Amino acid sequence: MKVDTMETSRFRIGEFCKRVGITPQTAREWERRGYIKPLRSCGGHRLYTEHDVADALNSQQNEFVLGWCEDSRYFMGLVNYMSGIDYKSMIINVGDVGFVETLHHIEKGDVIEVIFAKQSESEQYMAIESACRKHNVPCFAAVDENGGMLDA
To answer: Which of 35, 122, 124, 149 has the fewest CB neighbours in a 10 Å radius?
Structure first.
């Protein structure tokens, strides 16, 4: 009888992260958001298979975190915030052209998360937020209620 080694080989979070190129913190966040679903050992440790690694690597090729700012004055704040995110691919779009491109990527399913430079009542902001809800893409503003940038 031939054993499928893709499914019988299991390893812990450190090895999974090394193979995928992410930190354990990112792996835990992916699990929390439902992107990955590791098995658990009797002791509660996360266990991953070669199949989990292949899925994670394949999904990273076409998905990215997208930042959008309505006004270029907030661009550097968004760049600084997003530099603290551990993800291989990120795009930051600005203004009207960025708005159209942002909607396009959300609708194609390329985006795993949208980060706004700040909350707004503009039609563009509302349209992007609506597209995120429609396509189940998490979105949030990178500023707190007082206008300060959140920690990534």
So the answer is: 122
